[in-house]
Each structure stands twice: as structure tokens, then as C-alpha cells.
Amino acid sequence: MTTGAELPAPVPEVQPETAAFWEATSRGVLLVQRCTACGTSVWYPRFLCSNCHSSELKQVEASGRATVYSFTLTTRGILEYKDCGPYVLALVELEEGPKMLTNIVECDPETLSIGQSVQVVFHDTGAGSALPRFRPAA
Ligand SMILES: [Zn+2]
Fold first, then answer.
1. Is the pLDDT of residue 4 over 80?
2. CA of residue 16 to ligand 1 center, whole Å
3. Structurally, how many domains does the chain consist of?
4. Centroid of ligand 1 to alpha carbon of 64 (angstroms)
5. Using an 8 Å Cβ cutoff, are 115 and 125 in contact?
6. Burial status of residue 9 (CB atoms within 10 A of its CB: 0-12, 13-18, 19 or more)
7. Residue 47 lies in domain
8. What percent of the chain has pLDDT over 70?
9. How much is the pLDDT for 83?
């Protein structure tokens, strides 16, 4: 069973602190923030560092590589996902450090494992943004 190829891509609600992130996704670029005061990489986009509360955050391009931290096979979605078949909801740990809630697509959930290498893919929302999801790395 391969899942996730036909997941919906709902349009995100863009906030001032997330605008640069969503704009970058439309170009196939995954951004994280890096605190210039303490060096922590931060995701999701925000105004203050999650470690030291500095406002000195700069946008940096992430590698797009991550590992599966945890996952579940969702068999019954809600809202935009209510008509989807089974799909994988996962927490991945980006190479830069932060963890991201996402979907694993183009995969057989039976072969997916914690610690597995995954790579970002972008699913266009059709509204100037794209949802970062991950697939098993080649
Ligand atoms: Zn910091």
C-alpha cells in the first residue's frame, strides 16, 4: 500500500511571522529560523527564539533532510482529510534540529520506521504556498 500521493493541500492561514516561510515554500524552499544570539534552530516560524527568547532570528534554508521521529497511520481523517484513504501523520526531526508535524507520502506504511531518512517534497496549495511533506529518501 502506498499512501499520501492524493492528500489535499489546504491553504494555510498566513500570519506576519509565517509569511516568509510560506512564500519560500512556493519556490520549493524549506526555511527554518536560526537564532543569532544562541544558535538554536527554530521551527515553526515565530518572533522570539524558543530557547533564549531573543528576537534575533534569521531565516535560513533547511536541507530538506529529516528522520522519522514518530508516526501513525491515520485511517479516518477529518475536515479536508475526511475522504482520504489511510495516510501517515508523522513527526520528523529536521537535520537542523527542530521537529515538524507533517505527512509521509509516497511510502508503504508497512515499511516505514522510526529513524528512517526522509526528504521534503512540496504539495502546491494553488494559492502561492505549498505544504512541506516528506517521502522516504532515495
Ligand atoms: Zn536563542
1. no
2. 20
3. 1
4. 22
5. no
6. middle
7. 19-136
8. 96
9. 87
Residue 89 lies in a domain: yes
Q: Ligand 1 mean position to 34 CA, how many Å? A: 8
- Alpha helices, H only, the chain: 19-25
The enclosing domain of 44 has a CATH number of 2.40.50.840
Query: What is the number of residues in the chain?
Result: 138
Angle of CA points 42, 47, 52, to nearest 5°: 60
| Mean pLDDT within 96-123 | 97
Look at residue 1 and tell me whether its pLDDT is greater than 80: no
Task: Dig out the grid coordinates for 76 from the structure.
Answer: 479516518
**Cα of 131 from ligand 1 centre, angstroms:** 26
Tens digit of pLDDT for each residue in 52-68?
A: 999 999 999 999 999 99
Q: Which three cell numbers stand for residue 94?
A: 529536521
Q: Which set of grid coordinates corresponds to residue 70? A: 514518530
CA of 19 to the centre of ligand 1 (A): 21
Please identify which residue in the block is written with the cell numbers 527554518. 32
